[in-house]
Amino acid sequence: MYAITDPWLPSTRGLLSGMPMPLLIVLGVLTAGAGALAAAELVPLTPARAVGAGGAQGALLATAVAWARCDRGGPAPALAAAVVLMGAVGAALSPLGVIAYLAAPVWLWSQRDRLPGLGLTRASFSISAAGGALGVVLGAHLLLTASLTLGYGVRVPTPAHLAPWLAYDVGANVLTTEAFFRGALLDRAQRRWSFALTSACVTILCLVRYFLDPLLPRSLEVTAGAVFYLTLLSLGNCWMYWRSGSIVPGIVAGVAFFACYRLLHVVP
Which of 132, 145, 218, 236 sees the fewest Cβ atoms within 10 Å? Predict the structure, then answer.
């Protein structure tokens, strides 16, 4: 609906044109270098993983910012990558450093008028609430099925355990995923192809993004469950962006779903 009510003339440029390539190359080298140093045991795993994850997620947000900026200019993609990377490194250095994850959403909200493609000012309360309901329903179903079949249980975590994960989801995991895959890639692709084809392609790429995430458990049953739930979550978020032109409902849905996911633990 957003693409119909707010039409945009097709561009003669390619789908991936306008990517901040020099910045992405630097972030790619940073991410690969961190992984190589950790594999060679030249640096501790925790800071290396933080730099690698921050570089990869920073690349997603930087590309989203580059594509979502208005014609008259906007925030620098390098600054977008920097705030995400700062959050990841800050969280690795100190337990209180997880607060640095909130720098990215605060900065993005401050730039909302200069990033019309992300639609941060367009989301209505009703569709944002629908996003929250989608995330809770999928998360609750995950908790029920996993606790019955996969050897997992549900626990009420302490604030000290849950807060870092929520900060990570809000400031890095969900935020960068929705900004790039919905606010940037889907926004461009839906103006060229049908919604069904676009949402299918975006969902496949979104699944690849999550399966490359080193924080996802590597077991057959978890992978199978992830395909099912993340596919439904991605398709729902694609539809909500198509209806509203905003990434806010998708962020609400993603944070609600991952908040439920964080309640799972392996049964001894």
Answer: 218
pLDDT 10s digits, 84-100: 999 999 988 887 888 99
> How far apart, in whole angstroms, are the C-alpha atoms of residue 17 and residue 42?
37
Give me the residues paired with residue 152 across strands: 266
Q: How many CB atoms lie within 10 A of CB 183?
A: 28
Separation between Cα atoms, residue 136 and residue 142, nearest integer Å: 10
Distance CA 253, CA 144 (A): 18
Sequence ranges of the domains in the chain: 2-266
* 33's tokens: 């270098």
Cα–Cα distance between 95 and 130 in angstroms, integer?
A: 33
* Residue 22 neighbours by CB distance under 10 Å: 10
Query: Distance from first CA to last CA of the chain, Å, rounded?
Result: 48
Residues 6+ apart with CB under 8 A from 28: 55, 59
Per the CB < 8 A criterion, the answer to whether 186 and 241 are in contact is yes
Q: What is the pLDDT of residues 23-61, one digit of tens each?
A: 999 999 999 999 898 888 888 888 888 899 999 999 999
Residue that is written with structure tokens 């439904």 in the block:
232
DSSP-derived secondary structure letter, 194? -
Taking residue 130's Cβ as centre, other Cβ atoms within 10 Å add up to 19
Q: What is the DSSP letter of 157?
A: -
